Write a sequence for this structure.
């Protein structure tokens, strides 16, 4: 049985992978068959849309779980869908149109886009570019230097891109420093390649990686994903350094950004290389009071 410490919430980053198996999954996604639905409709399968929006922070049905199963396009679903459309810079009509369905079909990070606060019957959302986790967990001033280590099964040729990512965060933050150590048990940050079913929080088909916010320190890559070591992009492969930059941001306390150019944005296509953006750097400086 895992301890409470090992059950800290992981943050997922999930990216689009061009493969026949994934294409089949996307074609069978029940949301695809709900296109055109809007407020007032009653359509079999609408509860799937409600579950999707609840998972990613747009609906809160904790106090009425039976409501989630209803196939009615009600006022709450209308408001949630418009909120989703606004977040992804779509036309906020409340209609499940083609562009909205397309966005929902892109494999994505499993962490919610928004933090929902229940207040009476209203759903209040906080949206910004860079974002922090609930209660803003961060490393104390005594831990501005962090050690990291790789699991014994971690491929040696995949180490340099992660080293570069740590160096980039150190230079850009002008606050954190990092050093690689050999003892993973004593390291602040622990990095491993894991199979989809690995015993803590399993990867879904298109989950790329996951990491803990402070002080969790765990960072896992999905070994079932095709990887490239860079520095140039490789078609249909995911860049290890780009993903490391994102996951290190989570390890330091950054949540997902709404800004698409930020490395902390929740999704990315295969064959893309990204670096830290002003939004990423500003986020870490605000979190740690470095401005």
């Amino acid at each position: 049985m895992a301890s409470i410490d090992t059950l800290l919430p992981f943050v997922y980053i999930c990216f689009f992978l061009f493969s026949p198996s994934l294409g089949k999954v996307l074609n069978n996604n029940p949301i695809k068959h709900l296109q055109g639905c809007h407020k007032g409709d009653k359509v079999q399968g609408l509860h799937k849309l409600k579950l999707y929006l609840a998972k990613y922070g747009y609906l809160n049905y904790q106090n009425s779980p039976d409501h989630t199963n209803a196939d009615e396009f009600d006022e709450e679903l209308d408001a949630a869908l418009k909120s989703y459309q606004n977040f992804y810079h779509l036309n906020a009509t409340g209609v499940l149109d083609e562009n909205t369905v397309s966005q929902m079909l892109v494999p994505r990070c499993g962490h919610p886009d928004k933090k929902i606060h229940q207040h009476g019957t209203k759903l209040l959302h906080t949206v910004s570019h860079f974002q922090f986790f609930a209660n803003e967990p961060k490393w104390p001033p005594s831990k501005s230097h962090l050690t990291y280590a790789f699991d014994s099964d971690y491929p040696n040729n995949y180490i340099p891109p992660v080293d570069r990512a740590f160096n980039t965060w150190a230079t850009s933050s002008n606050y954190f420093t990092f050093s690689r150590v050999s003892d993973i048990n004593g390291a602040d940050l622990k990095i491993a390649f894991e199979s989809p079913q690995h015993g803590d929080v399993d990867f879904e088909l298109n989950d790329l990686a996951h990491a803990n916010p402070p002080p969790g320190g765990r960072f896992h890559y999905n070994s079932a994903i095709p990887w490239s070591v860079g520095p140039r992009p490789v078609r249909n492969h995911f860049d290890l350094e780009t993903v490391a930059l994102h996951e290190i941001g989570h390890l330091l306390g950054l949540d997902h950004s709404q800004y698409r150019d930020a490395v902390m944005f929740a999704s990315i296509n295969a064959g893309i290389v990204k670096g830290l953006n002003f939004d990423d750097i500003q986020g870490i400086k605000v979190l740690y009071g470095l401005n």
The first helix runs from residue 20 to 27. Helices lie at 20-27, 46-55, 75-87, 98-105, 159-173, 240-252, 278-287.
